[in-house]
Design a protein that fits this description.
binds magnesium ion, Sc_DH/Rdtase_CS, 8 helices, about 300 residues, oxidoreductase, Rossmann fold, NAD(P)-bd_dom_sf, NAD(P)-dependent oxidoreductase, binds nicotinamide-adenine-dinucleotide
Length: about 300
């Protein structure tokens, strides 16, 4: 008997992707993945798909870039129709995602708009439900992160914008979506290792991620009787526009991800399967959990 063929290549996670030092680069908020160097990997050329989400309907906020884009691509390749939300200035990134969803043979709905507006959050959900014919998966992933060395540098407007984007928007969005979510539906919130190991210069952002972890757990208990699961994803340092448009120092960006045990930042593609797993019916017993991917750092 010939030996079973093994995997052609078993990638070493230390060497699978670019490592620091990175080229210094800065973009105005919220940044574009298409202008990053190196370009992030969202699974465009690697994510396969096995029909795990066949016929599902998903809404992903921040679906133009980063983790949201990786989730949107993976969802489509697993057989779901996908609506993405993003800021109007992110149209170039969003167009690429829409094309990738369509190339996967699925319906794509593009819903640009600012989540800091409660009325927009409600309209976004209504449009997604109308154009997808319902909603089974809601990923509250969009966030604002700005680096400020001191709390004295965090203006009232800054603080308000971070709270509105990271906490009020999921509150408004989940409230609007809930009447449409059937038993079996999944809500996923993107939190962060910042929830339990906050950086001193991310005072406002980090506390929203702790709150996200908390709402995942309370809502999981609250919605379990309806058969709706709620889980969180807690990334470590991932190579996304958030990191090059949030005012991080160039020294920090140059060394980005190098402090993790794996010695490099993660790529959005490396989290795609977590978003899929949490949405899939075969994870039916998982609710109120937070799943990390942080290169060996960021343990709660
Ligand atoms: P990203 O910049 O690709 O995604 C963030 C998205 O948020 C943007 O694309 C934008 O569309 C959206 N957004 C921000 N403000 C908005 C607003 N007012 N209205 C509508 N959309 C708005 O970066 P990312 O790193 O992929 O971020 C996705 C999630 O991952 C966020 O919740 C972030 O906090 C979290 N996260 C990122 C890292 C990291 O190192 N990159 C680490 C931990 C957690
Ligand atoms: Mg973006």
């Amino acid at each position: 008997m010939p030996p079973e063929p093994g995997p052609a290549v078993l990638p070493n996670p230390r060497d699978a992707y670019p490592k620091p030092p990175f080229r210094r680069q800065e973009q105005p908020w919220p940044g574009l993945a298409g202008r990053m160097e190196p370009r992030p990997d969202h699974g465009e050329h690697s994510y396969g798909g096995n029909g795990r989400l066949a016929g599902r309907r998903a809404l992903v906020t921040g679906g133009d870039s980063g983790m949201g884009r990786a989730a949107a691509i993976a969802y489509a390749r697993e057989g779901a129709d996908v609506a993405i939300n993003y800021l109007p200035s992110e149209e170039p990134d969003a167009r690429e995602v829409v094309a990738l969803i369509q190339e996967a043979g699925r319906k794509a709905v593009a819903i640009p708009g600012d989540l800091r507006d409660a009325a927009f959050c409600r309209q976004m959900v209504e449009r997604a439900v109308r154009e997808l014919g319902g909603l089974d998966i809601l990923v509250c992933n969009a966030a604002r992160q700005q680096t400020r060395a001191s709390i004295l540098d965090v203006s009232d407007e800054d603080f308000d914008a971070t709270m509105k984007t990271n906490l009020y928007a999921p509150f408004w969005t989940i409230k609007a979506a809930l009447p449409h979510l059937p038993p079996g539906a999944a809500i996923i919130g993107t939190t962060s290792e910042q929830a339990y190991d906050p950086s001193p210069e991310l005072y406002d952002y980090a506390q929203t991620k702790a709150a996200t972890m908390n709402y995942v757990k309370s809502l999981a208990k609250q919605l379990a009787p309806k058969g709706i699961r709620v889980n969180g994803v807690a990334p470590g340092p991932i190579w996304t526009p958030l990191q090059v448009s949030g005012g991080a120092t160039m020294e920090k960006l140059e060394r980005f991800g190098g402090q993790t045990p794996l010695g490099r930042p993660g790529q959005p593609a490396e989290l795609a399967s977590i978003y899929v797993q949490l949405a899939a019916a075969d994870a039916g017993y998982a609710t109120g959990q937070v799943y990390g991917a942080a290169g060996g750092s960021g343990q709660p």
